[in-house]
Amino acid sequence: MSGHGTLKARIRADYPYILEYRTRWSDNDMYDHMNNSIYNFLYDSVINTYLMEHCDLHPSTSPQYGMVVHSHNNYFASISFPACAELALRVNKIGKSSVTYEIALFEKGVEGVKSVGEFIQVFVDRETTRPNTNGMANVLRQGLERIQMKPCVSKI
């Protein structure tokens, strides 16, 4: 993932998929902002919504599913109820059976990014809970490639 300053400069246009989430009263903690545990809940939700809508994932029956093997988050500013959050998603890297997502949380109507997180999933076979020797299913890979950021190639 990029440096902290680069992440803080993220804008909505950096992400090809955005999902709205209406914050709830119970999302706030005693400091009157969204509790840090809610961010992971939301990140997991936007990823799985994308997988279900665009990668033909059926959580309880698909032959492969993604297991989170790494996650972290950088917080820049708070959001709190009753704000509407915009969860922005992109794929930074696709491996044989793994995918690295970047998720940004914006507040609807507010310019700056509130947080940027990273999730890494490994797609495993339902029966063995191990990665398939052939990697992730083609339908998953094709759906993920639609939101993958292409590396910049400098022409020097």
UniProtKB/TrEMBL annotation:
Keywords: Hydrolase. It holds the Pfam family 4HBT_2. InterPro entries: 4-hydroxybenzoyl-CoA_TE (IPR050563), HotDog_dom_sf (IPR029069). One of its GO terms (molecular function) is fatty acyl-CoA hydrolase activity. Signal peptide: none annotated. Belongs to the 4-hydroxybenzoyl-CoA thioesterase family. PANTHER family: 4-HYDROXYBENZOYL-COA THIOESTERASE FAMILY MEMBER (PTHR31793), NOVEL THIOESTERASE SUPERFAMILY DOMAIN AND SAPOSIN A-TYPE DOMAIN CONTAINING PROTEIN (0610012H03RIK) (PTHR31793:SF27). This is HotDog domain-containing protein. It comes from Lasiosphaeria hispida.
